[in-house]
Design goal:
Length: 142
């Protein structure tokens, strides 16, 4: 069970049964520090905007090179945060070009093969040339 859900249940115990916070958290096996914890959302709008601007001007730059540019500009930002924002914004580059799907998209329909008449299938093929002599190996065979 997640701490947020345990916190809700502890609040229910406190309200419904008029027990103390200490007893409610003990029953729920929730530490009091976790009970009093209030998550604060990250405010990284400025970093996010700058990363988008760099990625728009330098299309082929990945998260590492964008991070180096940010540090040169004086931003105090962790490389993991740069990578996280890069992924969340959908700016991360593809590692390989999707060759198969591109070729399949450009492929045209093949024309239907015409079936040969039944008499042509019965005619024998001309004799082929005899196979070429095998070249000797440069090392003895075992």
């Amino acid at each position: 069970m997640k701490p947020a859900r345990k916190r809700e249940l502890a609040n229910f115990l406190i309200g419904a049964y008029r027990v103390s916070i200490r007893r409610a958290t003990a029953v729920m096996q929730l530490r009091q520090a976790t009970y009093f914890y209030r998550p604060r959302p990250r405010d990284d709008r400025a970093e996010r905007q700058r990363i988008r601007e760099i990625a728009a001007t330098r299309i082929r730059y990945g998260a590492r090179r964008i991070h180096v540019l940010l540090r040169r500009e004086g931003w105090l930002i962790n490389h993991k945060k740069t990578y996280r924002i890069d992924c969340e914004e959908g700016l991360n580059l593809r590692r390989k070009r999707p060759r198969r799907r591109v070729a399949a998209a450009r492929r045209q329909e093949r024309p239907a093969l015409k079936t040969a008449p039944a008499t042509a299938a019965a005619t024998p093929l001309p004799p082929s040339a005899p196979p070429a002599a095998a070249t000797p190996l440069p090392f003895p065979r075992r």
